[in-house]
Amino acid sequence: MAGLSVWDYVVFGVMLISSSIIGIYYGCKAKGRSTKEYLIAGGSMHWFPISMSLLASFFSAVGLMGIPAEVYTYGVSFIFHVIGFTTTMILAAHVYAPIFYKSRITSANEYLEMRFSSGVRLLGCILLILQYVLYLSVVLFAPSLALEAVAGVPLATSVLATGLVCTFYTTLGGMKAVIWTDVLQAAIMTVGMVTVIVFGVSEVGGLGNVMEIAARGKRTVLNWDPDPTVRSTVWTYGIGGMFALLQNWTTSQVSVQRFLSAASLQHVKKALYINIIYLIIAAFICCSAGLVAFAVFADCDPRSARLIASNDQVIPYYVVSRLGRFPGVSGLFMACLLSGALSTLSSGLNSLAAVTLEDIVKRIKPDIKDGTATLVTKVAACMYGVLVVCMTFAMSYAGTMVLQLAVTIFGVLASPQFAMFTLGMLIPRATSVGAYVGTATGALSTAWLAGGALIFRPDKKPLPVSVYKCWSNSTMGNFTTWESGIVQNKMMLNSSPTAKFHAISYMYYSVFGIIVTFGVGLLVTLLCSHGDPEKINPDLLYDYKSALRSCLPKCCRREKKRDFYDSELEMEHFAKM
Fold it and tell me: What is the spatial distance between Cα 574 and Cα 577, in angstroms, rounded to a whole number?
């Protein structure tokens, strides 16, 4: 297997240096500016960089490695994840974004205090910090592990290089540096993945051959099996993906800060709708990469041949082993992979810094000076960066595919928080007691569901692969080799009801957590206490009347009068543009 050349390291180095330069530029430019300028870019960003930044955040290194690995292992049913993308953006634009926007908040947890109580806000803060520290550790760990296994780059080297560079430019440049480096990294990710696909299609002999080989391997067959224990189904990726992505967007401080504070509401909605197109294109690119990788290794599965430890490594292995002879190509892909990590890391660190300031520091010292607040956020971003780097080394004990690990983290910690927001927005009589009990029940029950899968190992039902051109061997571990060279998973299942329950696909963890949290919260509200909707600011609630009115023909509508508060907000943002 070819290693990385000098040109590969040059290409990779240029990407890291460019990201650092952007941070230095905005760090010098922002000297003397306010904390608001540092955290939320002063509300003056155009919709294009915002939409590109959203794309970069959704498609982290986890997506760039995880999606092709999912398609390689389970088939093309993952493409129905685009249902989740589309639904998420529409609901975010018309339900959640307007409420967050009217609340004029920097941290989404501020909404929880305005709607419920300071205790609920603290609970949301704890959940968010936990989920982001763990998730960002996965984001940094994924490409580092792959590069160590297939390119010989030491894990410590890639973790430290990526983590420190990201911490540096995020700490120095603030939100504007985060957004513009995301734009750069989104471009690098796109070019890198397209390059992999083009070279792969050329090696196999054309797109027609790719599809023919993938069809023989059953990778192009859509699986409509409704059984929730079957991972590779249209229902799993469509419905489960919708809930997973919606909770990710809503509870993410990244979205609240960047999209609702860095631009006007109309720009936010435009960016979200434009991003549907970006996300669908990106999903097709990643799925295509998975099909191309399967076509290339159709007769010699590298994992079965023990050339890689996990299917997460199949794309990096292909790039280094087959494209290493082209100077700079492996470096371009490495830059692509780590760009995905950098974009999500920078957004997450900026968000965690804002949460620390708004939800913790300002509660202890409400009269903190602006200059001191800016310094606190920079120190917080730096400290979280160091913590994430340290936690990354612990992820080597996770023992599962990175996409599953990331979605599981959000399912356990983000789904209760999302349901808490939704309960407050949709149910006017919901109280803090219902929010407390519902969130605690949802988090604990989802953690129990996910933890049980570690004890009762489910059969994830991967599709068969071939080792026909690797070697002739009758048995390989838990696999049985047929005479044709086909390798089929041979796993004995526990038939107990408990084991079958824990065998549910990880894509349904978010669905389970949201339903339990919302249901218990609503039940507690109905049985124990009722809030008074008249005492709640209507801007914190979803406007059902306006939504129903918008569905009527124009001739039948009675337009709602615009109040002074709405007009004042629009004029304020118009003046900043």
Answer: 5
d(CA 140, CA 406): 11
Tokens of 341: 């990590």
CA distance 33 to 120: 32
For residues 41 and 182, what is the distance between their CA atoms, to the nearest angstrom? 14
Q: How far apart are CA 317 and CA 395, in angstroms?
A: 21
Three-state DSSP at 479 gives strand
How far, in Å, CA of 314 to CA of 310, rounded?
A: 8
Q: Are the C-beta atoms of residues 196 and 187 closer than 8 Å to each other?
A: no
Entry pTM: 0.78
Pairwise CA distance, residues 231 & 237, whole Å = 8
Token couple for 353: 């810094």
431-468: string of b/e by CB count within 10 Å (b at 16+)?
A: bbbbbbbbbebbbebbbebbebbeeeebebbbbebbbb
Query: What is the structure's pLDDT at 217?
Result: 84
Q: In 3D, which of 33, 109, 22 has the Cα closest to residue 352?
A: 109
- 320: amino acid identity, one letter: V
Query: Can you name the residues that pair with 486 across neighbouring β-strands?
Result: 466
**Cβ neighbour number for residue 532 with a 10 Å cutoff:** 9
Distance CA 169, CA 278 (A): 26
Residue 516 is predicted with a pLDDT of 94
Residue-wise burial string across 90-108, b where 16 or more C-beta atoms lie within 10 A, e elsewhere: ebbbebbbbbbbbbebbbb
Closest among 305, 357, 2 to 150, alpha carbons compared: 2
* Residue 436 CA, distance from chain mean position: 26
- The per-residue pLDDT for 493 is 53
For residue 100 the two structure tokens come to: 């967050």
Q: Residue with structure tokens 């570690």?
A: 454
Calculate ∠ Cα 326-301-11, nearest 5°. 25
**Residue 147: what are its φ and ψ, rounded to 5°?**
-70, -35
Show Cβ contacts of residue 29 under 8 Å, excluding neighbours closer than 6 positions. none
Phi, psi of 488 (to 5 degrees): -115, 140
Which helix (DSSP H) or strand (DSSP E) does residue 91 occupy? helix 81-91
**In which residue ranges of the chain is pLDDT below 50?**
1, 34, 38-39, 41-42, 251, 253-258, 472-483, 492, 562-571, 573-577
pLDDT of residue 446: 92
**Distance of alpha carbon 430 from alpha carbon 437, whole angstroms:** 12
Backbone angles phi, psi at 494, to 5 degrees: -80, 125
**DSSP code for 263:** S
Nearest to 406 by CA among 79, 149, 40, 67: 67
d(CA 124, CA 413): 10
Percent helix, percent strand, percent coil in the chain, to nearest 5: 75, 0, 25
- Of 302, 56, 289, 80, the closest CA to residue 188 belongs to 56
Strands (E), 260-389: none
Residue 489 parent element (H or E): strand 486-489
For 46, residues 6+ apart whose C-beta sits below 8 A from its C-beta are: 263, 267
- DSSP letter string, 178-205: HHHHHHHHHHHHHHHHHHHHHHHHHHHT
